[in-house]
């Protein structure tokens, strides 16, 4: 029976995967049954197989019709027609990971720690500059502008820490760890805890059961959710604030916490890393508590609290957009149908206009998911080089206004 999954867009059946239909004369001769081909009223053909016991109609199970309709006539969801051949985005691609890698210039794989640190310095200067200007003017005309700008900069800090977690920041693990802790702890993200779970996400992208976050829920898991969880997860604007809850308790159907060293997320040899990150996170909470006594809780809320909420909205929105289609549905896989390459091709690139440079081209998500070792400042070039290989498996993002 077909399984049902629930994505953030609603409840719908998960497409079944059928074994490849057997074709050729050998198959026809393997059974003394009779095959009949008849023309239908819709200018198509149907196949029927009769035997001494029963007759079965195979009209809906052939892999391709004898006559392909023109593009404007075929509106089937999930299929794009190219000449006389239909394109199925869920089909195994005709290329390999090595083919894509070979198309990407070699310098795109080079990690420059000085260049990476220059982005850190740039973002940190902007963050403190915005806070100083906001505190100086301290009026309600300026505050909303500050909240959006600072929340976006917190998101930019997260992306740089995200690069540290992938090892694309530099080839030095210690530098990656120090920079990652400073960047992520400053915005209340446990660096190692998140790094490990995000690695799990990349290793299982596009897998219905094994993907770590923003994956479809099975009907059974959805029905077992309490009403409060359903409301918070599937009713706007609550999903845009889900990230802190996810850090504490993960997604529905999964157990564990990003702060606890004995969580299901981690293996025993990662225990020290998780403890280190939780200690750094706790230290940042203590600093914020001290600042609330010095400048007052309201001022801290305006300078840090609301920008933090804007950052969380950025993170949840961008993550959702990169893993869910709207104009066309993206395939999800399970079991033997899944592979690292097929799962990576279910991601989407998005264009954020003038924000692209601010949040370090995180919109170039397909190549990032396939090759997370590529530094963010090479992703645009790497994507352009890979497009000819990816062909229709790459979905060109709509330009943002």
TrEMBL record:
- Report the InterPro entries cross-referenced here: FA_desaturase_dom, FAS_N, Fatty_acid_desaturase
Could you list this entry's UniProt keywords, alphabetically sorted. Answer: Membrane, Oxidoreductase, Transmembrane, Transmembrane helix
Pfam annotation, one family: DUF3474
* GO biological process terms held by the UniProt record: lipid metabolic process
One GO molecular function term of this record is: oxidoreductase activity, acting on paired donors, with oxidation of a pair of donors resulting in the reduction of molecular oxygen to two molecules of water
GO cellular component, alphabetical, reads: membrane
Does Membrane count among this protein's keywords? yes
Q: Where in the cell is it found?
A: Membrane
Lineage: superkingdom: Eukaryota
Which pathway? Lipid metabolism
Transmembrane intervals:
119-137, 274-295, 301-321
Q: Which residues form the Fatty acid desaturase N-terminal domain?
A: 1-132
The family note in this entry says: Belongs to the fatty acid desaturase type 1 family.
What is the protein's given name?
Chloroplast omega-3 fatty acid desaturase
Give the species.
Answer: Olea europaea subsp. europaea
